[in-house]
Specification:
The complex is a heterodimer of chains A (314) and B (260). With 314 residues, chain A is an alpha/beta fold. Chain A has helices at 42-49, 71-76, 93-103, 108-121, 137-149, 167-184, 195-199, 218-225, 237-248, 266-276, 291-299; strands at 4-13, 16-26, 31-35, 57-62, 65-66, 78-81, 155-159, 187-192, 203-208, 211-216, 228-234, 253-255, 258-263, 281-287. Chain A folds into two domains: 4-216, P-loop containing nucleotide triphosphate hydrolases (Rossmann fold), CATH 3.40.50; 227-288, 2-Layer Sandwich (Alpha-Beta Plaits), CATH 3.30.70. The longest helix of chain A is centred in the middle third of the chain and has 18 residues, at 167-184. Chain B has one domain (2-258). Classes of the chains: A alpha/beta (314), B mainly alpha (260). Chains A and B meet through helix 2 and helix 3 of A and helix 1 and helix 4 of B.
């Protein structure tokens, strides 16, 4: 039985369709990333999966439990790390964890020692009595994670987990997710708009305008493009686009004023283009496809073209 | 059973700890009504002659229970207004995804808010002699009991509104249009005797009127003659309890809807 089964999930806000019929599954012990620009439907999907919102139609099963009719059973097995902190800044680290434990029926000395052990493991052992508001952003994030793990969930949901983390802290965080999956067999589902973070997932679902445009391992998705991706900046992009099409008979996409094409042997192709149209090419880059190339290939848009810095969209 | 009680207790306890760590809230909900009381007492004492009360009841004395109700109201509002933000980007997010029935979340919040209101209200009781009211142990106990009921109903009323709102912008309008008039018309500020008949009817429909009446009856438990014309104790208590139950149920339904 898979950890998560999502079947034809739709969600409308009034008449606007935030999710338009989404289907995918997440296997046990998998790290699954939902990648997409803000406004793509990630937050809506996250709210539904974390039992905070009902879908307009469609089914979700978590470890075989129906999300709509057995939400209590689903909640027991769910650990959630929200994008906005869910810690009480006026309480200490330990107090936050204690309150959380009480909600899951844990209490007393057993709860305290379980919380202490988890905090030690996360390197927060000496900050247990500090007020959360006095911790740095990275440490608050780790406290948040400790809180979500306290009741030993089987499925961990993380909404934009690396927001506000510096690269070092982000790497630590990712390593810890790997550890959780290896040691505790936790299934991890996260949302992200950061390509590097998606690269680290076992499988990625790309969400664009409420539709899942691709699902697969990052390498498999890139494989589909095949060969190299060549990007050309030109004096006259439209003109050159036509000329390259006529001369080489290949598909040339114009994305944000640059020409993009997928070629089996990129280095040879670059030389041929530069020789064929001297003076017209301003600069050329080529390389193995990235998830960004996959995204462009599937949607015709650059990943970060629509003002995607910050904000949480819906 | 443990699964039901523990969440209620932990949410209640959290409210109290937070409150004690935020001194400004304590001062805000307490100082403002006191200033009101002092100014109203000084300004209205010459013109105020409550009908039906013994000669010489001063406005400071008449408005004392009203000021207690105002402290309860303000504290209940402050305690519930945080719910709006808290569930969008705060501690409540985590509570809502936990395997906890919605009613016990609302119960924890309502008891927490009511406890804070009660704490603030009790701080006013030592001022009773300044109002010319002498409390006996029995009347003190009954006053605290009534204050608990009124606190719980006002907190649940606040939650009923807060769980329906997406932002705190609209809360001020509701406070000025509903909550403050509810207090004004409860007999806290002026007695119903001597007002036009239509206003007397509005006052009779105000659920807080009966909380106020019960409070007055208990303050003068052993000198009933001094209380003036207010509804009798037992019906007032029953209506106040009914108001508690109703607001709590509606708040629970609102909490259920908001996460659906």
């Amino acid at each position: 039985m898979p950890a998560v089964e999502v079947e034809n999930l739709r969600r409308l806000y009034g008449t606007r369709e935030a999710l338009g019929g989404i289907t995918f599954t997440v296997s046990r012990r998998e790290i699954f990333g939902l990648l997409g620009p803000n406004g793509g439907g990630k937050t809506t999907l996250f709210k539904i999966l974390s039992t905070l919102m009902r879908p307009t139609s469609g089914n979700v099963r978590v470890f075989g439990h129906d999300l709509a009719s057995e939400s209590h059973a689903v909640r027991r097995r769910l650990g959630v790390v929200f994008q906005h902190p869910s810690l009480d800044p006026k309480l200490t680290v330990m107090e936050n964890l204690q309150h959380h434990g009480h909600l899951y029926g844990l209490w007393g000395r057993a709860l305290r020692s379980q919380a202490q052990a988890l905090l030690n493991r996360l390197g927060l052992g000496d900050r247990v009595s500090d007020l959360v508001e006095t911790l740095s952003g990275g440490l608050q994030r780790r406290t948040e994670l400790a809180k979500a793990l306290l009741h030993r969930p089987d499925l961990l949901l993380l909404d934009e987990p690396s927001t506000g983390l510096d690269p070092g802290a982000r790497r630590d965080f990712d390593d810890y997710l790997d550890y959780l999956r290896e040691q505790d067999g936790v299934t991890i589902l996260l949302t992200t708009h950061i390509l590097e973070e998606a690269e680290r997932c076992d499988r990625v679902g790309i969400l664009q305008q409420g539709k899942l445009v691709a699902v697969g391992a990052p390498d498999d998705l890139k494989e589909k493009i095949g060969g190299d991706v060549v990007v050309i900046h030109a004096q006259d992009p439209e003109g050159l686009q036509t000329k390259i099409r006529e001369r080489f008979g290949c598909e040339v996409a114009l994305v944000d004023g640059t020409l993009r094409m997928e070629r089996p042997r990129g280095h040879e192709f670059v030389r041929e283009v530069v020789d064929a149209f001297p003076g017209e090419v301003r600069s050329v880059t080529f390389g193995k496809p990235t998830l960004e190339d996959v995204f462009i290939h599937l949607t015709g848009h650059r990943f970060l073209s629509e003002g995607t810095a910050g904000g949480d969209g819906s | 059973m443990k699964d039901r009680v523990l969440p209620v207790a932990t949410l209640l306890w959290r409210e109290v700890v937070r409150f004690l760590r935020q001194r400004s809230r304590l001062v805000g909900a307490f100082a403002q009504p006191l200033v009101f009381w002092f100014l109203l007492g000084a300004g209205l004492s010459a013109s105020f002659r409550p009908p039906g009360a013994p000669e010489g009841t001063r406005y400071v004395e008449y408005s004392y229970p009203g000021i207690i109700a105002l402290v309860l109201l303000f504290t209940a509002i402050f305690a519930t207004i945080s719910t709006v933000e808290d569930r969008r980007e705060g501690f409540l997010q985590g509570v809502l995804v936990a395997p906890v029935p919605r009613w016990s979340i609302v119960m924890g919040q309502a008891l927490g808010g009511a406890t804070l209101a009660l704490l603030q209200g009790v701080l006013l009781l030592p001022l009773a002699p300044f109002a010319g009211i002498s409390l006996t142990p029995l009347s003190l106990l009954s006053v605290v009991a009534v204050m608990s009921l009124v606190s719980f109903s006002l907190t649940s009323l606040g939650l009923m509104i807060a769980w329906r709102m997406d932002s705190i912008q609209g809360f001020h309008a509701i406070m000025n249009l509903i909550l403050i008039p509810m207090w004004l018309l409860s007999g806290a500020f002026f007695p119903s005797s001597g007002v036009p008949p239509w206003l007397a009817w509005v006052m009779r429909l105000d659920p807080l009127t009966y909380g106020m009446a019960a409070l007055r009856r208990c303050l003068y438990l052993e000198t009933p003659a001094a209380v003036g014309k207010v509804p009798p104790l037992v019906p007032s208590l029953l209506i106040t309890v009914a108001f508690c139950v109703l607001t709590f149920l509606v708040a629970t339904v609102a909490a259920r809807r908001s996460t659906a």
